[in-house]
Design brief:
Chains A, B: Its cofactor is a metal cation. The structure is a homodimer of 430-residue chains. Chain A is of the alpha/beta class and 430 residues long. Chain A has 14 helices and 18 strands.
Chain lengths: 430, 430
């Protein structure tokens, strides 16, 4: 049975994503009405440049006063696709206080202030949905929050930034260096003029904080996420990876400790075996691998960014929030009851691939091996290559804590026979 | 805020899946209570063999009278993991009429009677959830029904039967024939003693009917699904596939026509390029590729069967249904408003790989090519191999309708120079 009074949607921001949201709301109005159970109408669009002509959006809906729009009181759902912390945060809070539910695609804000925003939503008995904030079109928040609600997630391992995956894939397939691959990504529009947020892992870290919180039913702040960018990954690292049957990806990894009482979240480049499903994720695609007690290993794959894919996720949330509103109910809110400890990077346990430049003389391997042993880091394989008085040692360890590995590396640097630590890379996905 | 009166769950069936559901409900009771907002308790377990000792299930909960259990009136959610049409259908209907919502893993029943069951659920204002009915633990129903609710799905292409994927993967990797690979699957427990439902595609067809209905918001009956098993796939077919840079998978394919007014659903073996993400789905894993207007290409991957994975999906639904119940609401029901025509197999358009045994003499290729042309089927490539007076022709076509292809093959069989049609296989995923 169809209700005839339409639900009113206010759109904050009308850039690449917002304009797609508006377009689909118009062109698919009948489908959306059928799926929601009531028509849904665009009641206002807040923009910074009102003079710009926006195809399909009546000029009378356009306003520069976003605050007045969210305060109107007759808005059912506010869709926030401005991005950034302010004014988005204040606008969302104001929207809840004036009776609206909120759909947001704002990963930075959710990662930093998700708990506070959820609290305001709950006080006002409203929904806060944000599928689009992580991995664009890929359904991930809903599967973690709802489909796996009866399971125990132990690990989330994902490629959640398309720009860096494009660059690393290019380096892998062509042998290019970082700068060359970045230049191509920029030329093709996959990287922004200032690529810092992507290549230094800030974007992925925000997503890791959000995913870890949802997966483990606990709060993980952005500051809790260890972050290491991929600007120092070299063509030589890819050659080393290939020798191990691996490739290199920038991964967001959220893990529950073996005893279940603590979690960690981190973003860094890592080697993963070519046989791992994440290894074959090409170009700017995203994919997230989820491991849980009962379901086992699941993977979710798709476009991680772009106007239309992000709009698809926003509209899925919009339909859900509208249905909840018609039902007089709200969906699952923040679930942080587990209140687990977030451990520091030093406690993370994984494997390492370490390249050392060493003196080409007898006894070096014994010295190096002794240092590993003294720090409790067990060696899996060593490969030694020498030429012209110079030599390199490539050590792959068994699983060890990051703290033990750091101690080992510090001690190795002090050895006379070690001329330098050429690279250290974690090995994941085994 | 936690409600203290527990929600009551009746479990129908306590086999591989049911016992896992009961186990997780017990061992994860605290987590489930937190995630639902109220404790959830097992109020009864209907089984056929009451004498069997079931670890962790108190004997006083066990009954052979499933009907009395679903009629009790104090049951909040009935979990049906019996399988088959009857008595499951009557029990589910009775459960709705006596105030319970239902979570089911019953693909055969949902495919055959989904519309009728949804109608009873709706009349009684109750939920019918069945994530576990398709592709085990992989979240698929919920993403299609909710995450993509604001998008337009055009195609669903999936490996939804683990048994056949195990067999085909084995044939691909070892060069084994069908029978040899089936024997290994049986020995390892991947295939049942009577593998008909799997290898003849009945299981996949049920899932295709369910997926098509949800993806396209229309009704697709089991009879609407074209079905062809994989028992006639040979080692020679795999060699042909390899020559084309392909492998062979048993696919469930649900498509919307280009003009959007009709849909098709079918299950058959098909060649797909090795570069397609579905090509690398190994062993008994399942994966489903979804193509939509806005989101683009998404893939969902994971274990498609097994007690624990299926229980994970059942429990996700159980949490959702319990939350709805506490909210006094129901989730999205059947969405069949689009009421699209379901076209027959003849109207399906795809590419074909055809192997012919022909006489090794001049003019044969010209004759064969003429037949294709007369039926409007355009040839992409032809490969001719001859020895000892026998020859084979391998033809790969451009896209053509199934009806045109059938007409072509019928005419080819009548040619004196064509000794036999060795194999016909569709080529998908391009």
């Amino acid at each position: 049975m169809m209700r005839t009074r339409p639900l009113k949607v206010a759109l904050l921001g009308c850039g690449v994503v917002g304009s797609e949201v508006a377009r689909i709301m118009t062109t698919h109005a009948d489908d959306l009405a059928q799926r929601i159970g009531a028509p849904v109408e665009l009641a206002g669009v807040a923009v910074r440049r009102p003079a710009k002509v926006r195809e399909g959006i009546p000029q009378e809906l356009v306003t520069t006063d976003a605050t007045a729009l969210v305060k109107r009181g007759d808005i059912d759902v506010v869709v926030e696709v401005i991005g950034g912390i302010e004014p988005a945060r204040t606008l969302i809070t104001t929207a809840f206080e004036h009776g609206a539910s909120v759909v947001s695609a704002n990963k930075a804000l959710l990662a930093q202030d998700g708990a506070a925003l959820h609290a305001v939503a709950e006080q006002n008995d409203k929904d806060l949905y944000y599928e689009a904030a992580v991995a664009g079109a890929i359904p991930l928040i809903r599967p973690l929050r709802e489909s796996l609600a009866g399971d125990k997630v132990n690990r989330v391992l994902g490629i959640v930034n398309g720009t860096t995956n494009f660059i690393l894939d290019k380096m892998d397939s062509t042998g290019a260096g970082y700068q060359e691959a970045l230049d191509e990504a920029t030329a093709l529009g996959y990287a922004e003029a200032d690529p810092t947020a992507d290549v230094e892992g800030f974007d992925a870290a925000a997503k890791a904080a959000i995913l870890a919180g949802i997966a483990f039913h606990t709060r993980v702040r952005l500051d809790d996420v260890y972050r290491e960018g991929m600007t120092e990954v070299t063509a030589a690292d890819f050659r080393s990876a290939k020798e191990m049957g691996c490739t290199i990806k920038l991964l967001a990894i959220c893990e529950r400790s073996k005893d279940g009482t603590s979690v960690t979240a981190r973003v860094h480049p890592a080697m993963i075996p070519l046989t791992h499903p994440l290894a074959s994720v090409r170009g700017a695609y995203n994919a997230v691998f989820v491991e849980s007690d009962a379901a086992g290993q699941l993977m979710f794959y798709g476009p991680g960014a772009g106007g239309a894919p992000t709009a698809s996720a926003v509209l899925g949330d919009l339909v859900a929030v509208c249905r909840n509103r018609l039902n007089g109910a709200t969906g699952p809110g923040e679930s942080s009851y587990a209140a687990l400890t977030v451990s520091s990077m030093g406690e993370v346990v994984t494997r390492y691939h370490i390249s050392l430049d060493v003196a080409d003389k007898p006894g070096v391997l014994a010295q190096v091996a002794t240092v590993f042993a003294e720090h409790g880091v067990s060696i899996d394989t060593v490969r030694q290559q020498g030429k012209d008085g110079e030599a390199s040692l490539v050590v792959v360890t068994h699983r060890a804590s990051d703290a033990s590995l750091s101690g080992t590396v510090e001690a190795l640097r002090k050895l006379d026979t070690v001329r330098g630590v050429a690279s250290i890379m974690r090995v994941e996905g085994e």
